[in-house]
Design a protein that fits this description.
The protein has 990 residues and is mostly helical. Helix content is 60%, strand content 5%. The strands form 3 sheets. Strands 3, 4, 5, 6 and 7 form a 5-stranded mixed sheet that branches. Strands 8, 9, 10, 11 and 12 form a 5-stranded mixed sheet that branches. Strands 1-2 form a two-stranded antiparallel ribbon. Helix 9 crosses helix 12. The N and C termini lie far apart (94 Å). The N terminus is likely disordered.
Length: 990
């Protein structure tokens, strides 16, 4: 055991951690009894410098076992040749997939001892690979197997050239463009070889021609080790033959080399795989969308008929470079950007190399947008290569030279990381390792050429470098588009001036900002100075600007963000949360660009911002838990004023929390209404308890117990953001206290609650409405239980019985509340049901309400409360049926409108389909009413007629801002129209 421990310690000096390392080294002939053999030390040093010494050694041992006869030659070559040593060990220490290839074909290591195959000869090499000994092209599985081996062999050469410098200093570190160019040339050669095989299999006629157009990274000569290769096929001749040529090429190359993706063709996967040149021309001139022209920016013929490919490129060029002039350019760019962003789960956004914030897509999209804007008049910008185009933008003055250089450096760093990750197992991936993956981080760092420095591990160094480059890309993204663009332009000599103020504004306009000049002013105000706050804002704004561009009101959202930032400038954690929590920024942008209520509340309840990164905490808090917490906080306050202030603060917090969860689609209508109703009830409970305590302290006695009965939407737990709290106050005299004294005491308590809650405030009103009490405003504010019972039995009208259908205890003395509910049950659920005379009275009142209360000029088809099929229609229908049948149908004895409606089918009072239509309309009207409040910041029952407010309301209800909001209005009208027809039958005809 001791001897093994010493051996392991010795091998560890060379970077080996595997216990088998000593045995493998001895089997290779590089390790003796006392340690490394002198003539093999260079090999051991090389292994120790590889990204994964254990992986490299294991690969060599596998090759030795697979080809024992050839091992002496490889052993000798490793000892003598630094080139082979560096390239082979570099590959084996980086890629288990290429190690598998070398084991399956052991002699392939000789490729790495000689000069690489020039990329210009890749096509000939792969063509030769698919040619049999008889000179005939191989077919079927033989062709695919031969192409796979040839492709992997050339890929091995490229990887060896890319990695050898990690092991041997005398080997050059090839630039990114060289590796990407060679990978692209290899992909082009594979497509050409696949087409050769397809040609032999299909045997087309002399007039059948096919051109392969590369798109995406292949078109830009910037392929990865593992990439889908996007293509478009252009054919001439028999369409069946050319289609078979294309599909066979895709199958052969897809099986042997990489996936060939033709989804960028006209009409996507639903369109024809091959079109003629005229067919492509007609489609692009009539039907293509802007994103398709942006994709065509990289289109380049790479295989097949050269003449046909050249004609295609000549045809699409003018269309690409005039795309920015299209009338729908802004909307199309927004739509395209949203599709890209939605590919990234928020929890992975910070690790996504390609689509994440500060990732490759930021660079590529920025360059392409500048190309589309300025390439119309400057042919130097018309390159399919991201790096070439960026260099041209810098040379021409559209981008500062230093900015272009830094952006290029960071882009190449991320591409190098991407290449190493894909080489590991030859799998497509763009995900940077998580902080917990220390072994993966160490390997990736070494594979990228990063070593430990001053006590910091290689993984820590890599993580720091990754974050530095991501932050740099975000900063430069901001600089190029938003912040100091006008200042940069002013420094360009007049003779070389290419950017204008108009162009600067048009860029923000292209992202959806209706007032670019105002947006530039907000950006300048937020980033002015050299403070830490300004620096963080400079890093945050590009994210916010992009995200706000996808909201219904980018300009209003940016203004709201400025106001919130200025209001919270001294809040120490505010910017830190935005900087460190990507999901918070994304969700905040949605909220600010949609709602006027949210930013107003956020400035006074900033702590809710911290919940945006945790959807479960934002939306998952139980109403009972909230109510308990609010009551406990209020109970600790010394008086009514302090108690109400605390209640307001907590209610503001909850109102904002629910509004955020609602707008973000994290809460359904019933949960929203229940949460708002619960917090309102808790506010009443806290205020009432404080008022009672104060009166007790003043008088020393408690003449009566008091209960608060929720009515209307509060009673039904159906409150909206702008709803008042309809209540009744009921009291019960203490023993020996006269009814009049008890009522007087209770009235003073109730008035204290009502006045303290109704005091002016910046928050949405806390209006306690007692107008549903007996005799309305002319009646006493508080009655005893006996007085209520006597009134309802003697003088109560049918509308009062209807109002009591929603009555429930919400605050105060629970026993008294239960007694009140028991007392009114015979009133609201009359024995024998509602007599026909009273039913007619209900219908008459409803007709009068419809006629007299609809605001002048209101659209009855979009008024959420009083409109046709709106809330009043459905609620009155449910309540009439409750009055008529609840005495014999216990399920109808509920304060909930949807609850009452859903009890109708079992009672035989309505069809299930009718009830579902009514519930759907009620929920839609409730959501629309709530959304209108959130969007406008004030309570309104009428949906906006048009404009951004209507778009925002539609967006709050789950419709994309890109959609025509008229479609939402049409859907609303359809739903409520169906409900109104059912109401006509159930309420009037019945």
């Amino acid at each position: 055991m001791a001897e093994r421990t010493r051996a392991n310690a010795t091998t560890a000096k060379f970077g080996f951690g595997d216990e088998r390392a000593g045995a493998d080294l001895r089997a290779a002939g590089w390790w003796g009894e006392d340690g490394p053999l002198p003539d093999a030390e260079r090999i051991l040093v090389a292994l120790g410098r590889s990204p994964d010494p254990d992986l490299a050694l294991r690969g060599l041992d596998r090759i030795r076992q697979a080809d024992e006869d050839g091992w002496p030659q490889l052993d000798r070559a490793l000892r003598e040749s630094a080139v082979l040593r560096g390239r082979l060990i570099g590959v084996l220490g980086s890629s288990s997939a290429l190690a598998d290839f070398l084991v399956s074909l052991p002699g392939e290591w000789r490729r790495l001892a000689d000069d690489d195959t020039p990329s210009a000869e890749y096509a000939a090499a792969l063509r030769e690979a698919v040619t049999g000994a008889d000179g005939m092209t191989l077919l079927g599985g033989d062709a695919e197997q031969a192409l796979r081996a040839g492709y992997r062999g050339l890929l091995l050469e490229i990887a060896a050239a890319d990695l050898g410098h990690l092991v041997e200093d005398e080997l050059d570190w090839p630039p990114y463009a060289d590796i990407a160019g060679r990978l692209t040339a290899l992909a082009e050669a594979a497509l050409a070889a696949g087409l050769v095989v397809a040609d032999a299999a299909v045997d087309p006629g002399p007039d059948d021609r096919l051109a392969v157009i590369a798109m995406g990274k292949c078109g830009g000569r910037e392929l990865n080790y593992v990439s889908d290769v996007d293509v478009i096929f252009v054919g001439d001749g028999d369409p069946q033959v050319t289609t078979k040529l294309a599909s066979t090429t895709m199958r052969v190359v897809g099986t042997a080399c990489f996936e060939v993706d033709a989804a960028l063709r006209p009409e996507g996967k639903a369109g024809a795989l091959v079109r003629t040149l005229d067919g492509h021309t007609a489609y692009y001139q009539k039907w293509a969308r802007t994103w398709e022209f942006q994709a065509l920016l990289k289109a380049r013929p790479v295989a097949g008929d050269a003449e046909l490919g050249a004609k295609y490129a000549e045809m699409v060029a003018p269309l690409v470079w005039s795309a920015a002039e299209r009338e729908n350019f802004v909307a199309d760019v927004q739509r395209m950007r949203r599709r890209v962003e939605k590919h990234v789960p928020s929890e992975l956004a910070d690790r996504e190399l390609k689509l994440g914030r500060g990732g490759l897509r930021d660079v590529e999209f920025a360059v392409q947008l500048l190309q589309l804007v300025h390439g119309r008049v400057d042919p130097e910008l018309r390159s399919p290569s991201t790096m070439d185009a960026l260099a041209a933008l810098g040379t021409a003055g559209y981008v500062a030279r230093t900015d272009a250089s830094e952006l290029e450096e960071s882009y190449e760093f991320l591409r190098a990381i991407e290449h190493r990750l894909q080489l590991r197992r030859l799998r497509r991936t763009h995900l940077f390792p998580d902080d917990s993956e220390t072994a993966e981080l160490r390997w990736l760092a070494r594979a990228t050429g990063i070593r430990p420095v001053r006590g910091r591990s290689a993984g820590e160094m890599l993580r720091a470098e990754f974050r530095r480059h991501v932050q740099r890309i975000r900063r430069l993204h901001e600089k190029l588009f938003y912040r100091p663009l006008l200042e940069s332009v002013s420094k360009v000599p007049t003779a070389a001036l290419r950017l204008t103020t108009t162009q600067a504004a048009s860029r923000l306009n292209a992202l959806g900002y209706a007032a670019p000049d105002g947006a530039l002013q907000h950006i300048k105000a937020l980033t002015a100075g050299v403070s830490r706050r300004a620096s963080i804002q400079q890093a945050l704004l590009p994210v916010l600007l992009d995200l706000l561009a996808d909201t219904p009101d980018p300009d209003g959202g940016l203004l709201a963000y400025r106001k919130v930032s200025e209001a919270l400038a001294e809040t120490p954690w505010y910017l830190r949360v935005l900087r460190d929590e990507g999901a918070v920024v994304e969700r905040l942008a949605v909220l600010l660009g949609t709602s006027k209520l949210v930013p107003d509340l956020l400035m006074r309840a900033p702590e809710v911002l911290q919940l945006l990164g945790e959807p479960q905490r934002l939306a998952g808090r139980a109403p009972d838990e909230v109510a308990t917490s609010l009551r406990a906080a209020v109970r600790r306050q010394p008086g009514v004023k302090a108690a109400v202030t605390a209640a307001r603060s907590l209610r503001r917090h909850e109102l904002l929390r629910v509004a955020c969860a609602d707008l973000l689609g994290l809460m359904e209508v019933p949960a929203v209404c229940a949460a708002l109703s619960s917090v309102w009830a808790a506010v009443l409970q806290g205020a009432l308890a404080a008022a009672v305590r104060q009166k007790e302290a003043e008088a020393g006695v408690t003449p009566a117990s008091i209960a608060v009965i929720g009515m209307g939407r509060l009673g039904g737990s159906e409150l909206g953001y702008g709803s008042d709290a309809d209540v009744l106050f009921v009291c019960k005299p203490a023993e020996g206290v006269a009814d009049s004294d008890a009522a007087k005491y209770a009235a003073s308590v109730a008035e204290s609650v009502r006045e303290s809650l109704g005091a002016p405030s910046q928050d949405p009103a806390l209006e306690v409405d007692t107008n549903l009490r007996p005799e309305g405003r002319s009646g006493p504010l508080v009655r005893t239980l006996a007085s209520y019972r006597a009134y309802y039995e003697r003088w109560g009208e049918v509308w009062e019985s209807q109002a009591l259908l929603r009555a429930r205890f919400v605050a105060g003395d629970a026993e008294l509340g239960e007694e009140f509910i028991a007392a009114i049950d015979p009133i609201r659920y009359p024995a024998g049901g509602l007599d026909p005379t009273k039913a007619r009275e209900v219908r008459r009142i409803k007709a009068r309400v419809d006629t007299e209360r609809m605001p002048r000029g209101a659209d009855p088809t979009t008024h959420t409360k009083l409109g046709r099929g709106g809330l009043a229609d459905i609620e009155w229908t449910a309540q009439l049926l409750q009055l008529q049948h609840a005495h014999e149908v216990p399920a109808l004895r509920t304060t909930s409108t949807p609850g009452a409606l859903r009890a109708l089918p079992d009672a035989g009072l309505a069809d299930s389909a009718e009830v579902e239509s009514l519930v759907e309309a009620w929920e839609l009207a409730t959501r629309a009413r709530n959304a209108s409040m959130l969007v406008r910041g004030k309570a309104m029952d009428q949906l906006p007629a048009q404009g951004r407010e209507l778009t925002a309301v539609a967006s709050a209800l789950g419709h994309s801002p890109d959609e025509d909001p008229g479609e939402f209005v049409d859907a609303y009208r359809r739903t409520t129209r169906r409900a109104h027809a059912i109401v006509e039958r159930l309420f009037y005809d019945a």
